[in-house]
Design goal:
The protein contains 16 helices and 13 strands. The chain is elongated and about 105 Å long. By secondary structure, it is an alpha/beta fold.
Length: about 425
């Protein structure tokens, strides 16, 4: 008695309606010439012929094959299909993937057998390493890259798309790219939603600490090469008598506190003398690479109509990194550019506590790009605490300093812990 095992039957790629009709006509004309193949009563070759024979009451012959186990049966069935049918690369890959567990098991057995002895166990026994993906590609006669893509497709694509692949209406590469594009879109949407959540949550634990100290006194408390990120917004040249002297007084000291694989963001005004003062220092140091300047621009503070010179609606952020720095997380497309257009706090878009206050969204963006949870972030000109508060919202360890009592009071009201006031 013949038995049908669904696990074996699914290894036979379905005939199209036309192919089945043609096979049926041939059998009705010439009979079933090839015997059905059985293993332990299970049908392993001839499912379509058996269906037609049962439908029309036709005679057929059977032969039995011997196999060690079901894995060997599957391997024989798949190779038999490859040898007898004109299958597409997609169909061949799908069939080969049915053998993934077989090759994975062999790979583990070989690894265990040769553990500590290399490929040659003895003069008589040699263990050949098995790479599952390459073996599957060899069986299907496709590239291992194709096997990898089809594996993703099988786990993700709809039955309708798989049917289109089987008939050749769409290509493996086209479907794979569509899946990856959809995955990327989903990830970006999730990140955008998370950004909105991060901006809305309050700092309830891991509050940032702000010391009532000047920049240099604070930096000298820190160990060299101890911080992951310096992000700070020092006074601009409009508020400093000698910008060159001021920049020289703290920049190199601050850089010495950053880990060799850390990063820095230094916000400066777009004034020629100020730009020159910082570039003179940063281009001479050799600990970090100076990136092309980032531009933060805004359109919601118009000012008066200019007559002799243009209004300034941007500020510069000097970004420093090293060859060993971790990669930036700029997977959200509009966050990958040097120019960042985010309106400034103005009472409608977040409370404005200070003239040059940076928007929360900008602070959060830069910190997310360049740090991970529990990283140490330092702001040696903390002002009202924006950078530190945004870092604390996403579980960074944030510390800073400021000498202005009024700024410290606002920072405290916003959620910072003040020390030394």
């Amino acid at each position: 008695m013949i038995e049908i095992k669904e696990e074996f039957k699914k290894l036979i790629p379905a005939l199209t309606a036309e192919e089945f009709k043609q096979l049926e006509e041939n059998i009705l004309k010439d009979g079933i010439r090839d015997p059905l193949v059985l293993w332990n009563r299970y049908l392993i070759d001839g499912h379509n012929r058996y269906q037609i024979a049962f439908k029309h009451g036709l005679e057929y012959k059977t032969i039995d094959k011997e196999f060690k186990d079901e894995s060997e049966v599957k391997e024989w069935m798949i190779n038999n299909q490859f040898g007898r049918r004109n299958l597409s690369n997609y169909q061949r890959s799908v069939l080969a993937l049915e053998l993934e567990s077989v090759f994975s098991k062999r790979a583990k057995e070989n690894l265990k057998l040769s553990e500590g002895k290399g490929k040659q166990i003895s003069a008589e026994v040699k263990v050949v390493p098995i790479e599952t993906r390459k073996e599957l590609a060899k069986v299907a006669n496709v590239s291992h890259d194709t096997i990898a893509k089809v594996k993703v497709i099988q786990a993700t694509a709809t039955p309708e798309v798989k049917a289109q692949l089987s008939t050749g209406e769409v290509s493996i590469n086209q479907v794979y790219q569509d899946i990856k594009k959809e995955e990327k879109t989903l990830i970006l949407e999730q990140k955008k939603k998370q950004n909105a959540i991060d901006l809305s949550i309050e700092v309830s634990k891991n509050k940032p600490t702000v010391y009532h100290l000047d920049c240099n006194s604070f930096l000298n408390i820190l160990d060299d090469n101890s911080i992951d990120l310096l992000i700070t917004d020092p006074p601009y040249s409009t508020d400093i008598k000698d910008i060159n002297e001021f920049a020289n007084s703290w920049v190199n000291l601050a850089l010495s506190k950053i880990k060799p694989n850390g990063r820095a963001y230094i916000c400066i005004g777009g004034y020629p003398k100020e730009i020159n003062a910082y570039l003179n220092i940063l281009l001479k140091q050799n600990k970090f690479i100076l990136d092309n300047p980032l531009i933060w621009t805004y359109k919601n503070t118009l000012g008066i109509t200019p007559k002799m010179k243009y209004n300034l609606n941007y500020q510069i952020i000097l970004h420093l990194y090293s060859e060993t720095s971790s990669e930036l997380d700029t997977s959200i497309t509009n966050e990958m550019w040097n120019v960042m257009e985010i309106n400034a706090p103005d009472g409608r878009l977040g409370n404005r506590y200070h003239t040059w206050q940076k928007p929360n969204e900008l602070a959060l963006r830069l910190i997310k790009h360049s740090t991970k949870e529990n990283d140490l972030i330092i702001d040696c000109f903390a002002c009202t605490g924006t950078f530190l508060l945004m870092g604390s919202k996403i579980n960074r360890n944030c510390k800073g300093c400021d000498i202005d009592i009024n700024n410290l009071q606002i920072a405290k009201e916003r959620g910072c812990i003040i020390i030394g006031k």
